[in-house]
Design brief:
By secondary structure, the protein is α+β, with helices and mostly antiparallel strands. It contains four helices and three strands. The chain has helices at about 15-25, 45-50, 60-70, 105-110; strands at about 30-40, 80, 90-95. The chain has a three-stranded antiparallel β-sheet with strand order 1-3-2, covered by helices on one side. The protein is elongated and about 60 Å long.
Length: about 110
């Protein structure tokens, strides 16, 4: 979802909650979902929005990202956020838990 998630919400009319939930639901148990999100506190936001002209980019705080995560039904325990030193992006990693093992299946292989 790198380079796509931040184009949800606002002027784009694409719901970030349903977009994130769809991506998460496609993961196999044990999979990892990674996306970047431009920070609302990034330096020089006018460069991105004005000069480059990316009108659909939604800048968000880490708290706003976590709010979307929770609304998508994803546990915050599955989320790690990384903050590169340039202060422009938050990189988000979501690990979907592995499927629980089936003890009956394990037992049947022994018998």
């Amino acid at each position: 979802m790198m380079g796509i998630f931040e184009y949800t919400g606002g002027n784009s009319k694409r719901d970030p909650v349903s977009f994130l939930k769809s991506g998460y639901d496609m993961l196999y148990p044990g999979g990892r979902l990674i996306f970047g999100q431009m920070l609302d506190t990034r330096p020089n936001p006018d460069f991105t929005m004005g000069i480059i002209g990316w009108p659909y980019v939604q800048m968000r705080s880490p708290a706003e990202i976590m709010e979307i995560v929770v609304k998508a039904g994803i546990s915050p325990k599955e989320v790690k956020m990384y903050f590169p030193t340039d202060g422009v992006y938050t990189v988000v990693s979501i690990d979907k838990p592995k499927a629980p093992s089936n003890p009956l299946k394990s037992l049947s292989s022994i018998l």
